[in-house]
Amino acid sequence: MKRTLLFLTLILAISADAMTIQSIKYKGMVHISENVALRMLPFEIGDDINEVMADEAVKKYFQQGYFTDAWVDFTDGVLTFHFIEKPVISKIVLEGWKETEEEEILSTVIQIKSGSLYNEKKLEDAKKRIAQAISQEGKIDSVVEVEKELLDNGSIKITFIVNEGETIVIENLTYDGVKELDSDDFDDVIANKEHEFMGWLFGRNDGEMKLDDLAYDNLRIRDYYMQNGFLDSQVGTPFVRVNFDSYTADMSYQIEEGGVYTISSVSINQVENVIEDEKIREVITLKDTEVFNIKTFRDNAKAIKTLIADKSYAFVEVIPDLKKNEKEHTVDVVFKVIPGEKVRIRNVIIAGNARTLDRIIRRELFLGAGDMYSLTDLEDSKSSLGRLGFFDETTIEEKRINENTMDLVVKVKEAPTGNIQVGGGYGSYGGIMVTLGVSDKNIWGSGIGMGVTIERSETTESASFNISNSRLNDSDFSGNFSVHTSMNDYYDYIINSKGITLGTGHRFSRYISGYLSYGFSDNTYEISELNTSVSYLDPTYLQSYSKSGLTVSVKYDSTDDFYLPRKGMAISQSLEKTGLGGDVDFIKSRTTFGKYVGLEDYIGFDAIARYKARYNHLLGEGFIPFAEKFYMGGIGSVRGYESFSIGSARTGSTFTQSSSGGKQTFSNSAEISFPLIPKAKMRLVTFLDWGFIGEDKLTEYSRGGYGFGLEWFSPVGPIQLMFAQPLNQQENDRTAVFEFTMGQRF
User: What pLDDT sits at residue 9?
Assistant: First the structure.
C-alpha cells in the first residue's frame, strides 16, 4: 500500500508541476546492468518527466521477468527506480529417482539450470515432466514434490522428492491370429514381454511394462512378419487390462497374418544415370523367387545410397517401391534413385576440442575443404578419430549450404588421455601383483604419447619408459623409443633383462599400417631362492645372453573406437628376427585377430560381442633361452591362471611347467559386454578363454578359464576388474581368481 501511495504521489507531483530529470538511479537491480537499463528508458537525463513515461518505464522493467516488485520515486530532480529481484536457484537436487543419472535428468527432464531465477510455473512444469517420464517407464501412482530451502546468501535450493510408484508387471501376453510363425520369436523384437518365473535372473524376462515402447511393439511384430514375407500382415495396438490391486496386467494382440510374398523381379529406376545399373545390382542381395525380406530390402537401399553417395551425390535419395500382386502373392521390387547434384565440401569446422590441436583432428579426416563428398570417407573419418582414443564422443554433421555445397562440422568430446595407471591382482604363486604408471597418449594435445610404468610382485619387477608419435610431422610415418629393465622369477631361476627399442612405422592406407623396429637387450640368470635345487636343469639354458634383432609388423584396423569398438576388425602380424649380433638366433612370429560386433541393431540392447585370437610361433634350433619362449595365463591370454604361468614341459624331464615355456601357443576368447551403469560408463563382461601351448606340437598342453568382469571407463583411464575360474586345471598349476588392470584396450 505504501508503494502504491508513493507512485500516486509521484504522478500528482508530475501532473501539477512537471520537472526536469537531473539524474537517474537504480536500487536493488542485479541482473540488468545500469547501462542496459538506461537504454531501455523512453527518456533520458534532461527530459521532462510525465505520468505516461514513468508508468511505461516501470512496466517495461517488470516485464523482463527478473523482479517480484518494482516502483519509482522522484525527488529534487532525481528519478530513482527500486527493485526486489526474484531469488536465484543455486542448487537443484533429485531424490528418489535415477539419482545416478541426475545430470542427464536435470538437462532433459527438469530443464531448470542452477543460476536461473526462481519461477513457480517452471517448477510445476518440471514436476509434470518427471511424472510423465516415470509413467513412460511403466510405473503408476508416482508422486513428485518440491522442497524449497532459502539459503543464507539469499538463494534457493530446490529438491525434487520423487516416489516412483509401482511397476506394472505383464502376467499374461497372448497373440490371437498367429498360425504360420512362432509367437515365442516375438520376444526377440518387442520390449514388453510376459513375466517369466525368476524373471529377475540375468537373461530372463522380468515382465515390467515399458510404456514408451508399448506404442511401437506392434510395429516391431509387423516388421518381423515382413522379414518373413508377410506383406499384408496387420498387427493391432495391444489391448491392456490392468489390475490396480496387484499392479499386474494382461495384454493381447490381434493379428492378421495374410500370405507369404515371393519376389517376382528386382529393378532399378535411376532418374538420372550416374552409375551403371550393373554396379548397383552388385550390392543388391534380394533375388527373384526368394521370400521377400523387408530388412534385406532396407539394407539394399542403404547400400545403394552409400554407393551413389560415394560418387559425391551427398543428397541422393533411394526410394524403394513395392508393387504387390495380391492374387499371385508376388512382389516387384523397384529401387528408385534420385541422385541430386554432386556436392563439394566448402569448409571443415572443428568444435569441442579444448586441448587437442585442430591439426591433430584434421589429419585423421579423409575429407577436407575443396574435396568432393564421399559417404564412405565420412564414415571412415569418424572411425579414424575414434581409434585415436582421444575422444569420448565424435560426430560429423553435414551442414547443407546449397544443392552442391556443404560444410562439415566435426564435433568432439575430449576424453582424459593422461592416466595414472594402477593394475594388478592376486595369484596363488606371485601373491599381490601391482602395476603403477603415469602416461599420456596426447601430451599438450599434440598426439605425442609418453609413459613410465613400474610393476612389482613377489616374483616380478619391471620398469619402462616410452615415447611415441603416431604421425611424425603430420606425415604417415610414426616413431617410437623405449627402454626397459625387468626381473622375473620363474621358480627355478630368475632372469634379469635390460633393453632398448627404436622403431618407425608407416600408414599405407586408412586401415593398414606397417612397423619396423630394432631392439637390443642384455639378459642374465640367477638361481631362484624359491627352489633349493636346479640340478635337473641343463646349464646351457641358464647362460646369460644378449639379443639383437629387427621386428617387422603389419596391422589392419577397421574398428570404430580405440577402447570400446562396436564394429570392425583388428588383425596384426609381426616377425622378429634375431641374430644381428648378440648370442641368439631365431624367428618369432606373432599373430593377433579381433572381431567386434555391436548387437543393438539385432536385439535392441547395447551389447557387444567380441572374439579375440592370438597365435605365436618360434622358429629356431639350438640355444633358445627359456625367457624367449612363450607362456600363457592372465589378462590377454587365459584368465583364471597367473600371468605367464602356463608353459610346456618336456616328456621325461623334471622341468616344471613354468620353467620351460613353449615354441607355439594359440589362445582365443569369446566375450559379451553389457552396459551396467551407462551414465558412469560402466559395463559388465562375461568371457570364455581357451589356449594351447607346446614345444614340438601345439596341443601338448591346453588350459581354459571363464568368468565375468567389470569394465569401467573411469576419469583416470579404462579399468578392468576380472573374476575368473580355471578350466582343465592340473596339479601345480598357479591360478589367479582376481586380476585388475588399467589402460589396456578391452
Answer: 38
Q: What ranges make up the beta strands (E) of 415-544? A: 418-427, 431-443, 448-456, 460-469, 477-489, 493-507, 512-527
Question: Does residue 358 carry a pLDDT above 50?
Answer: yes
The domain locations on the chain are 2-85, 89-163, 168-256, 262-338, 344-414, 418-742
Distance in angstroms (rounded) separating the CA atoms of residues 712 and 741? 11
Pair 631, 490: CB distance under 8 Å: no
Question: Which of 3.40.190.150, 3.10.20.310, 3.40.120.10, 3.30.360.10 is the CATH number of 89-163?
Answer: 3.10.20.310
What confidence tens digit (pLDDT) does each residue in 405-458 have?
A: 999 999 998 877 666 555 555 444 445 666 676 777 788 878 888 888 887 767
Q: Does domain 344-414 have CATH number 3.10.20.310?
A: yes
Local confidence band at 178 (pLDDT 50, 70, 90 cut-offs): very high
CB neighbourhood size of 146 (10 A): 14
pLDDT by residue (tens digit) across 491-502? 567 788 999 999
CATH level 2 (architecture), domain 418-742: Beta Barrel (2.40)
The cell numbers describing 194, all together, are 510376459
Report d(CA 480, CA 515) in Å as an integer: 10
Q: Find the farthest-apart pair of alpha carbons in the chain and give their distance in angstroms, rounded.
A: 123
Which pLDDT score is estimated for 724? 93
Q: Classify residue 299 by burial, with Cβ atoms within 10 Å: 0-12, 13-18, 19+.
A: middle
| Rounded Cα distance, 220 and 190, in Å | 6
| CA pseudo-torsion sign 696, 701, 706, 712 | negative
Q: How far is residue 728's CA from residue 730's CA, in Å, rounded to a whole number?
A: 6
In whole angstroms, give the CA distance from residue 320 to residue 310: 19
Q: Residue 204: helix, strand or coil by DSSP?
A: coil
